[in-house]
Every structure is written in structure tokens, then in C-alpha cells.
From TrEMBL:
<dbReference type="InterPro" id="IPR002805">
    <property type="entry name" value="Nict_dMeBzImd_PRibTrfase_arc"/>
</dbReference>
<dbReference type="GO" id="GO:0008939">
    <property type="term" value="F:nicotinate-nucleotide-dimethylbenzimidazole phosphoribosyltransferase activity"/>
</dbReference>
<dbReference type="Pfam" id="PF02277">
    <property type="entry name" value="DBI_PRT"/>
</dbReference>
<dbReference type="InterPro" id="IPR036087">
    <property type="entry name" value="Nict_dMeBzImd_PRibTrfase_sf"/>
</dbReference>
<comment type="similarity">
    <text>Belongs to the UPF0284 family.</text>
</comment>
<dbReference type="InterPro" id="IPR003200">
    <property type="entry name" value="Nict_dMeBzImd_PRibTrfase"/>
</dbReference>
<protein>
    <recommendedName>
        <fullName>UPF0284 protein LRC238</fullName>
    </recommendedName>
</protein>
Length: 354
């Protein structure tokens, strides 16, 4: 199946044929104190508001409004959350929606599952998370429950500084810097991210590749553990990992625990991530020997009248809240690229009162 607005890699056309019936969108939410490091993330208009990013994203996607605070989640440059894209797709399609707290400081005012109880620590401590196995086991049960109600799953994430923790677990498992993770910032703070990760690895005493559980415990985040458990529990249905380099890291982690050949799994992200010259999405998968289909939603806001949306075309934000993956899934079911772009424009115009 080939649809305009989607690019296909690694046999993704065949996987696309499995996206039938009514799917479910699952948003994994979490916090890591790594996000408080100055310059590490664009999530949140200020550091003290960064922990609000996941609950606000969930509220926006589910209700079209921000309930916990009064404003749409923005970057410091006032660029809107990619959750705006996800919300647009939700209004155009019939996805069931589920929200999963993997370890957050602030809960959203929408119904949600809870599989973790605490945010991740700053990975510079080398002791990011102590309850990885517990999160995985609880998330397995949630994944099985959601899968029983779904023909397929689209799994997205909202966790600030998640590309830094993704780099952390990849290096902990033996990857090199060649597979650099992306960034929500226009200029990827590669040197800062690498120095943060290397400090964490040193504190953790990691000098040789370690197993995925220890990697997450040392320099990962709760979203990763939640994703692994959810996928393990939902293995009987097709799964789209809706994200860029963070979800690529999840795929690598998962591949060190189980044989992915037993899963119907693909990764789908935005074209902005795939074209990001400061990152290497396909390199991450290749280094991890992860052979899964990849699709990109080739959205464009070049026609927008809003600077906040035009910024996406200049390399800001790029992905998050499952935006690319849910767009791909919707387009496979008949929603057009232009419908998504126009709906994003309409929703944003209402939010900013123009």
C-alpha cells in the first residue's frame, strides 16, 4: 500500500497493509530531572514549567484544551507542541485514545493508566531509575488490555529531554556517537548531550556494553520502561512506534530483550526527523541490528501564516506526542496530508485567537 504524503523504507509498504480496522493511540507520559539541565530541551516555555509538558500534551490531544494551565505548551521561542498535530489527527479520525503515566511529577486532568510512580532522576547521577522492572511488568498488563480492544496500536511519547536519555541508553549498550539522537531544538546541543551522558555513564561505572535493563536504570527514563512493557503486552496486534530517535532507541532496547521477528512492529515519524542532518535515525537502527519497517509523514507547514508553525520548516521541534506516527496511520486510513496541515492551522488559529 502506497499513499501520498508517506515515505516508505525497509519494506514498510507491506507493513502498511496490516493497518486495518480501528486503531488505538497510546501516549506514554513521563518526566526526567535531566530536563532541568539548561539548554538540553526545547520543551516548556521555562524550566519550571517543563514538568507540565506531558500532562498538557495529553489534555490537548484528548480535549483540544489545556486544563492544568491556561496556555498551549510552547517552546521558549513560542513554538507550539507537536501535540497540536496529534490533536488535529484525532479530530479527523476514529482512534481510541489511552494515556499512560510512566512516572510523572504532575498528572493530567484526563483519564489515564499509571504504571510508574516517580520521575526519572538526572542521568548525571548514574542512577536514573530504580523501578524499571516493576514499570515493565505493570505496563505489560496495560498493553494486553489495550490490545484486546484494538486492531492495532500507535504508541507515542511525551517526555522532555527524552532524546538525551535515548542517547544515554544507546551508548550504555555499546553504540557510538555516529547514531546521534535528534533534538527538539533547532540546533542540536550535541556536545552538551554527550557530556551529560558520559558523566552519567562514568557515575554508573559503565565502561563496557550493558544489558537494556541496567542501561535504563543508569541513564534512561521511565517512558522507555513503559514502552517496553506496553509492547510486550500488546504483541498480538500490529504496533507503530510513533516517534523518531527516542522510539528508535526503544526498538533497540526491546531487541535486546526479545526477538523482534515475533512482532508486527514498525517505526513512523515525521519527515523533519528523517531529514535532520544533526541526527541519524536510520544509523541508530542499523547499529542496533534492528531491521524494522520505517515510514515518515511528510507534513509541511510552509503555507502557514503563523511563525510558530513555520518554525517547524526551519528545524524546530520536529516530532513528539506521536505526531508523525499517528499522521502516518491516519493517512493509511484515508486522511490526506493536506487535511492534517489545514486542521493544524485551523486549531492553532483558534487557540491564538486569530
Amino acid at each position: 500500500m502506497v499513499v501520498d504524503g508517506i515515505s516508505y523504507y525497509n519494506g514498510a509498504e507491506k507493513f502498511a497493509e496490516k493497518i486495518k480496522g480501528r486503531g488505538s493511540f497510546v501516549l506514554l507520559m513521563g518526566n526526567t530531572d535531566t530536563a532541568f539541565i539548561p539548554g538540553i530541551t526545547a520543551a516548556g516555555i521555562s524550566p519550571e514549567l517543563t514538568p507540565y509538558t506531558p500532562p498538557l500534551d495529553a489534555e490537548l490531544v484528548e480535549t483540544g484544551r489545556i486544563l492544568t494551565l491556561g496556555d498551549i505548551p510552547l517552546t521558549p521561542e513560542a513554538i507550539p507542541t507537536p501535540g497540536l498535530i496529534t490533536r488535529a489527527v484525532v479530530t479527523l479520525s476514529d482512534f481510541r485514545r489511552y494515556y499512560v503515566d510512566t512516572g510523572m511529577s504532575i498528572s493530567p486532568i484526563v483519564p489515564h493508566y499509571r504504571v510508574g510512580s516517580v520521575p526519572g532522576k538526572d542521568i548525571r547521577t548514574g542512577h536514573a531509575l530504580s523501578n524499571v522492572k516493576e514499570i515493565i511488568e505493570t505496563a505489560k498488563k496495560v498493553g494486553a488490555q489495550i490490545a484486546s480492544e484494538s486492531e492495532y496500536l500507535v504508541i507515542g511519547e511525551s517526555i522532555a529531554a527524552g532524546t538525551t536519555t535515548a542517547l544515554g541508553v544507546l551508548l550504555a549498550m555499546g553504540h557510538t556517537m555516529d547514531g546521534f539522537t535528534s533534538s527538539s531544538l533547532q540546533v542540536n546541543p550535541q556536545s552538551l548531550k554527550s557530556s551529560v551522558v558520559l558523566e552519567g555513564l562514568k557515575k554508573a561505572g559503565i565502561t563496557q556494553p550493558v544489558d537494556p535493563i541496567r542501561a535504563i536504570e543508569s541513564v534512561g527514563d521511565p517512558m522507555m520502561a513503559g514502552a517496553i512493557g506496553l509492547i510486550l503486552g500488546a504483541k498480538n496486534v500490529p504496533i507503530i512506534l510513533a516517534g523518531g530517535t527516542q522510539m528508535a532507541a526503544v526498538a533497540v532496547l526491546l531487541s535486546r530483550i526479545v526477538d523482534l521477528k515475533g512482532f508486527n512492529i514498525a517505526l513512523a515519524t515525521t519527515g523533519w526527523v528523517a531529514k535532520d542532518s544533526s541526527a541519524n535515525l536510520f544509523g541508530i537502527l542499523k547499529q542496533g541490528n534492528v531491521d524494522i519497517p520505517v515510514m515518515t509523514a511528510d507534513l509541511s507547514f510552509a503555507r502557514s501564516k503563523f511563525e510558530g508553525l513555520l518554525a517547524y520548516e526551519k528545524g524546530h521541534v520536529k516530532e513528539g506526542v506521536g505526531a508523525g506516527g499517528i499522521s502516518v496511520a491516519a493517512m493509511l486510513k484515508g486522511v490526506t496530508k493536506e487535511q492534517i496541515e489545514d486542521t493544524v492551522e485551523f486549531i492553532y488559529s483558534k487557540m491564538v485567537g486569530q
